[in-house]
């Protein structure tokens, strides 16, 4: 079972991916269920983490160097408390508490009614409060004091009830015994715990019901973290290098670690989460690298079909469904997300899903968010022109119908007016290095009203809509690959990358989502996106002619064209930003591999976690592709803690390497390989459990490094840790739900997940999604210019005038003659998945992999392009 949310209107909201919710026990109907172990936490964060650097200068360690660190810790705590107090009023009014406002009114009515019936459930407390009150108004209102005393008593009793429920829930949510139980079973203590959680959660918990009851992220010990780190890098280092690193680690534990850990412990006690605010600020917002292909990630709709061929109709239904989802979020009508239907997850990231823009700064960015009532429009980009499309109208200001929104969007498509020379490539500034864009934006803001008014409209929009032509297949890439690459990077000037959400709709009717990463991790926008697909396909639907249902409204005026009056310095910055953006777009290679041989049902029958199965197959594929092992990044959610985001699982373990070597050793039998596979899978499962419970490695080391920089306390060990390169970055993205996208009844309507750019310029980015019981889709990316991944083969071609495309090496006579390596790596993944399946004796047959004992990569020739996945092989379950 994955993420499912029941909302008013009769349609379910899907969310995240594979797991064993059905085997372990389930949440109530309509709950948003996220499976375990949850390595689907995010997509593009690995690159941001790898490129994070903070240099505040060095100084002599001493007492005076504690001041900036203490100031930062104090500020973090104050920010945390300020956020909590600001949300308290909204949560109470929306009923996002175990005892909502309605229960308070009921309690007040009950106390007043008992006084009228001359009963005293307060055991004399009301009379005591009455005697303590001044005798105001006694002469004119004899019962006034009694009513005030009863009101005070009712309010105090309701507050005490609310606090008691929060304390009890917080204590209950600390229980983690169910994580160590065998899969498919629930012990009596766990069943009792689950029943108590449901009792103390109230009758109808909402999205933010558990928010204040979630426990804080625990702070691991430095000894345990360093030991786990050394264990994770052991298979990647020689004996001499490992011994040197171990010596550095021991020096760190006895010198810098105690001071750093004590300050970090103070923050863990004072703030809501000792990682998340620093992670968001220093890894994302202070990163100066471009967002294009580095930070933003994408999500697609369906593999092959579109519910309508009309671009405006698809966009109209999607805009309507997204705006309606925003309204349901504001009213608190979304059910809370839970892990396996039992463990509530943090929902703080949902608050900034819409109406949010990342504002560039010279040294650091910030997130700008407006309330729903101040953002009643979207901005549409079509052929370099910007339009303001109002989403609400009429006397009551209600949301326009899908058919009227389609009418407005069709007007934009039919408008033949050309783009102004200065505005056509304006969006390329959001893809430029952040400092360049910050300077250009400051120039816009410093101008008159005509120059900054369009910018205010864009930054205040609910989200951004891009209407584009459908990318066709190229010489080396099928249409699906081109569609993924288009949603991720576009043309370099076709996305406003600062917006939290970019809805991309193609002329063929297909669509996708480009997501800015700093405000949330993958499961949150994926949850919303799957809700949109379910609503616009199965609830809103389309007429027989492909249009949205309903009738147009001729009284609604056309969208407003935004006219940009750009200062000269901004206009001069656009060509610079465009060149860099287009270079980044050309350097990004995307490939989608629909693996149709088997899926989650097969891994469940093997009694192996699906994520462990795929991760070990990825280790085997990467070894065959490059002939070596590398540091591997796998994101795992930590949203079971207050304001939690992600932790890193390091799948390249000693056990995984032993299994891979066994697969390439012709002297070993399949039984021996299977035994090593099961050991490696169990190790991966243990790492996922540790990361999920806050006992991971990388976030703790990240905070220790940050504190050392704040203290001006150099640490060679932490510097070595921060210098690591993640040449394989992986993530499991959200999947469709059988309740919504049934592959048996609707085989074409299967949400295919999304992907991201590689974390390292010489590595791969791999996202995978379990689509039902019999399919896995892989999203693979790499850099075209990387010499390690060999995306290009240098060879002489015809003269430059006859060359079919510009040579990436900048020299005439060189061009692309070989297949791009993301598809080669996809072939290795497919072979590795099939080879692992044969270990279970299921008759999958041989793959196209190289002979055992040699790497599959051949330097003498490039791989053949794979236009489509081969026919599924029958597996005897």
SSE layout:
Layout: E1 4-7, E2 11-14, H1 21-24, E3 32-34, H2 45-51, H3 66-93, H4 101-116, H5 125-132, H6 144-172, H7 188-200, H8 222-233, H9 239-254, H10 256-270, H11 276-285, E4 297-300, H12 311-331, E5 337-339, E6 343-344, E7 356-359, E8 366-369, E9 377-382, E10 385-390, E11 392-393, E12 398-399, H13 402-414, H14 434-446, H15 449-459, E13 464-468, H16 479-488, E14 501-506, E15 511-515, H17 523-540, E16 560-561, H18 568-586, E17 588-595, H19 600-605, H20 610-626, E18 632-637, E19 646-649, H21 654-663, H22 670-692, H23 698-710, H24 716-722, E20 728-732, E21 754-755, E22 764-770, E23 776-783, H25 821-838
Parallel strand pairs: 3-5, 9-13, 13-14, 18-20, 20-22
Antiparallel strand pairs: 1-2, 4-15, 4-21, 5-6, 7-8, 9-10, 10-16, 11-12, 14-15, 17-23, 18-19, 22-23
How many β-strands, per DSSP?
23
Overall mean confidence score, pLDDT: 81
Helix content: 40-55%
Instruction: Using the CA coordinates, give the radius of gyration.
Output: 28 Å
Overall 3D shape: globular
Strand order of the largest sheet: 16-10-9-13-14-15-4-21
Backbone structural class: alpha+beta
Low-confidence stretches: 1-31, 34-38, 791-820, 850-877
Strand-residue fraction? 5-15%
**Gap between N and C termini, in Å?**
21 Å
| Total of DSSP H or I helical runs spanning 4+ residues | 25
Largest sheet: 8 strands, mixed
